[in-house]
């Protein structure tokens, strides 16, 4: 079994803002608990917000867990970038997605997001992700992130 990733002094919303293009209510993560070269562990409590920007018809569907994982992957990619200005990225594909709940907004606990990088190069990264509570998994799957160039340059 792999060693757990290294804990950090928990990063709150202010530090996370520097690593995500999302602002305001669309920044879904509340804390980065730990990370290393391969893994990141984050926490979110925004699924409790009745004004959550991804709610539809008063509900926050379980598929929104993918966005929570994507934001954790974005932070991880920026933290592990080998350059001063990390590339922007976009979610290219999600595979093997599984959901154990129908919605997120009725979960009382915080969400625990863990993403493990399976492979990466300068243009793409592949992750396995799990969104869970202390009671068990909420959603899991694999995702591929494609990096995009800044200012017309190749990543």
Describe the SSE topology.
Blueprint: E1 7-11, H1 13-17, E2 31-35, E3 39-44, H2 65-79, E4 88-99, E5 111-120, E6 124-133, E7 136-148
Antiparallel strand pairs: 1-2, 2-3, 3-5, 4-7, 5-6, 6-7
Describe the structure using short key phrases.
13% helix, disordered C terminus, mainly beta, 155 residues, seven-stranded antiparallel β-sheet
Plain-language structure description:
This protein is mostly beta strands. Helices cover 13% and strands 39% of the residues. The chain has helices spanning 13-17, 65-79; strands at residues 7-11, 31-35, 39-44, 88-99, 111-120, 124-133, 136-148. Strands 1-2-3-5-6-7-4 form a seven-stranded antiparallel sheet. The longest helix has 15 residues, at 65-79. The N and C termini lie far apart (33 Å). Residues 151-155 have low confidence and may be disordered.
* Helix proportion: 10-25%
Discrete helix count: 2
Q: Helix/strand-derived class?
A: mainly beta
Order of helices and strands: EHEEHEEEE
Low-confidence stretches: 151-155
Instruction: Give the strand tally.
Output: 7
Separation, N- and C-terminal Cα atoms: 33 Å
